Amino acid sequence: MIGLGYLGAVHAASMAKLGHDVVGVDVDASKVEALAAGKSPFFEPGLEDLLTEVGETGRLSVTTDMADVAGARVHFVCVGTPQSADGYAADLTYVDAAVSELAKHLGPDDLVVGKSTVPVGTAARLADVVAGAQPGAILAWNPEFLREGFAVKDTLHPDRIVYGVPDGERGERAAALLDEVYATPLSEGIPRIVTDYPTAELVKVAANSFLATKISFINAMAELCEVAGGDVTQLADAIGHDARIGRRFLNAGLGFGGGCLPKDIRAFMARAGELGAGDAVEFLADVDDINNRRRARMVDLATEVLGGSVEGARIAVLGAAFKPDSDDIRDSPALDVAARLGQLGARVTVTDPEAIENARRRQPQLHYEQDVEDALRDADAVLVLTEWRQFRELDPVRAGELVARRTVLDGRNALDREAWTAAGWTYRALGRR
Ligand SMILES: NC(=O)C1=CN([C@@H]2O[C@H](COP(=O)(O)OP(=O)(O)OC[C@H]3O[C@@H](n4cnc5c(N)ncnc54)[C@H](O)[C@@H]3O)[C@@H](O)[C@H]2O)C=CC1
Ligand SMILES: O=C(O)[C@H]1O[C@H](OP(=O)(O)OP(=O)(O)OC[C@H]2O[C@@H](n3ccc(=O)[nH]c3=O)[C@H](O)[C@@H]2O)[C@H](O)[C@@H](O)[C@@H]1O
């Protein structure tokens, strides 16, 4: 398993649980050190228990030395593909480096399995690198669909399994070996789609683009509700009852963030443009714009409830992670809004059950409190920006005793509006009256 981040560490532990002998490699010595001690290098529910479980079997070892992968039959590539520093395209430096380094250690029957999310065309290019180094070795692309916060469950019980393989006998061999890796119980009853490289690569970005579009669709409806006096949560419930639409991923609010949806739709636009098909996914620019407008709207709403300026106001921001049950702050809408308010002169205190350390590293100028009550103390406004259970279940009466002014902005439509209003709070939310 090459790359032991949010994807690779979970995949490594899960494959060991299935009974495979797994060697995990990462260039980041601190991650390797944590995993060697049976600790998760980041917060992901269930991962530490899984590491303990597989630690007792001795089937998972970790290293910073790529040479230690020699002898493995199947090599999963799970390194990062972030947005480039200078544009929308994916930065493939890590994938290219990992595959070039791996190529030196490949045996003639080995299978290289790409799991990272890559622009269409990458697999074909890397297949040449693999074949150039070891003609017997085969490359497959096996995109990953796990969600952070549910990563262990999603890995061990996926919705579907997709393999992109070369044509002919080599493709059949690759698929058969992957079937062995994902043998029962993982694959029992799970739809399995075996296809070519480009389709497998496109399935991944198409899925994330669809999810991003669904979120931006409901957030566009929230904009309409705001100007027309409607309620987007009721609208979502009503359209969601139509099974063709479905209620999931129709939660309006601050929009999507994280290390995947934002960068994946941008990389898709960049790649489509390179292929001369930019028009086909031009709508994703709107999806991105709608999403970004939600953050600006939240800053405006805070300014409005604070009487036209946030300068000098004490603002409690509940949430730093891009979603609950994660410590991931990559492109986090919550942390972005907190930082913007700080720039405007507000005295911002951020609290989050798991993400404070990461947030402090990214936005050291903000003030942080681990305890939510300490964050609420003397606040002029409370902004709920990540819907952790701890925040959804806050007692509005107790919270009201701590703050200077009972004004709450529900950036995730996650609170019980009636209970907060009954406790004397001014309640404002995105897309609701
Ligand atoms: N995080 C998620 O929920 C999911 C991520 N993905 C995709 O998986 C890929 C990885 O994402 P994350 O795990 O979130 O990123 P991450 O940044 O958490 O982990 C990537 C890891 O790769 C390591 N690495 C970089 N270069 C290396 C090299 N040459 N050799 C060995 N290790 C190296 C890094 O040190 C880091 O630990 C991305 O393409 C992402 O789009 C796909 C599905 C879900
Ligand atoms: O490629 C990836 O890395 C992954 O990206 C997403 O997973 P993830 O980023 O972990 O989180 P999501 O649950 O998709 O949430 C993404 C963002 O959308 C927001 N969101 C989600 C749902 C919703 O209804 N509304 C909404 O604003 C969340 O708050 C969060 O900021 C996809 O859901 C996974 O299938 C995919 O594997």
Automatic annotation (TrEMBL):
Q: Which residues bind substrate?
A: 145-148, 204, 249-253, 257, 323
| InterPro entries, sorted | 6-PGluconate_DH-like_C_sf, NAD(P)-bd_dom_sf, UDP-Glc/GDP-Man, UDP-Glc/GDP-Man_DH_C, UDP-Glc/GDP-Man_DH_C_sf, UDP-Glc/GDP-Man_DH_dimer, UDP-Glc/GDP-Man_DH_N, UDPglc_DH_bac
In the record, what terms sit under GO molecular function?
A: NAD binding; UDP-glucose 6-dehydrogenase activity
What keywords were assigned to this record? NAD, Oxidoreductase
User: Pfam families, alphabetically?
Assistant: UDPG_MGDP_dh, UDPG_MGDP_dh_C, UDPG_MGDP_dh_N
Tell me the ranges covered by the UDP-glucose/GDP-mannose dehydrogenase C-terminal domain, including all copies: 316-417
Enzymatic reactions: UDP-alpha-D-glucose + 2 NAD(+) + H2O = UDP-alpha-D-glucuronate + 2 NADH + 3 H(+)
Its pathway?
Answer: Nucleotide-sugar biosynthesis; UDP-alpha-D-glucuronate biosynthesis; UDP-alpha-D-glucuronate from UDP-alpha-D-glucose: step 1/1
Q: Where does NAD(+) bind?
A: 26, 31, 81, 117, 148, 263, 330
- The EC category is oxidoreductase
Q: Does the keyword Oxidoreductase apply?
A: yes
Q: Where is the active site?
A: 260 (nucleophile)
Q: Per the UniProt record, which EC number(s) apply here?
A: 1.1.1.22
Q: What processes does the entry annotate via GO biological process terms?
A: polysaccharide biosynthetic process; UDP-glucuronate biosynthetic process
Q: Which family does it belong to?
A: Belongs to the UDP-glucose/GDP-mannose dehydrogenase family.
NCBIfam families noted in UniProt: NDP-sugDHase
What's the protein here called?
Answer: UDP-glucose 6-dehydrogenase
